[in-house]
Amino acid sequence: MNIKRKIAIAAVPAVMALASTSVDSKILLMSQEGWEVSFDGAANAFIMKNSVSNVPDSSGGTGNITFDTYGGVTGGNDDTSIVTGLLPNVWGMSLKAPTANGLDVTMRLGLYTHLNGGENALGNGQINIRETSGSVAGSFGTILFGRSLGIHQSNAILNDMLLFGVGAAANADQSNTSLGRIGLGYLYTDFRPQISWTLPGMDALGGNFGAKIGIFDPDSVVADSAAFNATDKNSPRVEAQITYNGGIGDLGVNLWVDGSYQNTERNEAEAAARTQQDASGAETTRRGANGNDNRDTDVDSAGVGFGTKLSYQGFSIVATGFYANAQGIRGQKAVQGLGRTGALDDVGTERKTYGGYLQGTYDFGQGTSAGYSYGGNCLKRTGSDIQTRGVMNCQTMHSGMIWHNVTDNFRLVAEGGYTEKTWYLADSDQEDSFGGVGAFFFW
Known about the structure:
This protein is mainly beta. Helix content is 9%, strand content 47%. It contains five helices and 18 strands. The chain has helices spanning 3-11, 13-18, 154-158, 268-279, 383-388, and strands at residues 27-30, 36-53, 78-83, 89-96, 104-113, 127-138, 141-149, 191-198, 209-216, 237-248, 251-265, 298-312, 315-325, 352-365, 368-380, 392-407, 410-423, 430-442. The longest helix is centred in the middle third of the chain and has 12 residues, at 268-279. The chain is globular.
């Protein structure tokens, strides 16, 4: 089986989540009654060198400022470590019932493991169950219920070459995967409890269009000060996506647009804290021009993502972007235990974020490919940010990668690059450089 085909349908955990009702596999067991059990997965490891320079400090007259990193490397480290990349190691299993009444019913379970976890000789890396779902497919499309990959920003991460690399934050203290380009070109889609519907092919439009919509378990919205978190999750999160896959002659064209929306009420304690802060005059953006009290009692977290992938012979170009409100710089939910994400400021005001990445790759043939990408995410300051904090402005990353498919099941990878972080009210930026080599085994 060609390795590109294997990756697309089985080896990548994120792709397996999207295609959980039709996972192909090298290991397939079948019964006479028509039941099917298949196994698939991947394992990877990288040896990485990571260093940090130009740790930020406060500018003259600003006093003692705490510089928010929102989960990024805080600076000062210079280490070598053996890590899993952006993808953890995974063992996946799919159970499919015999087709009946035109329906295909499938169950999916994915166990995800990590090399990282400190210096405990017994090992204390995390084990995640990111996929546990069932699905029903028929003429109406596919309905999935359970935990699986989210919809919003999923194409941005699935088209990122760093899906098979390490990328940002490759330091020895991680107890989970690396960050890849999360927060440096897109927001993390996450694996979420959901009920989602993938519509059947739209034949009336040539069969090149697709659509997906789902309701998801909502998240708390995280503020820089915990007193202003929005935690009353009384309505689900909604995500949707429209795609186009076609071409013009030898030019392959993939387009997509996706979005998400969640409304989260502030509980009584959060509302009281915010009212007190308003009364002190430190935050006045919620008052109308006529002086009326327009303080909000809820938070609207919303975002839109878009992108394209153009392919011509061995060349591929990917360009993506997003704009979001109250979703943070890495994602509304804390990513991999990274804590604050910048969705709300110190007094609970919603922050705007935006970003994207540009990537070019070339397939030289004989299993060898190379690519380069650049992108980043930025926060827009609120009134409180201007007055009180050294809030992160932008974080960007350059990345280069070369990989070679030794066999259909074994890939060697070499990568390198650096990230740059900037803050308001800082004398200097911070640069993190990384580089290393690793390998993937697919089955």
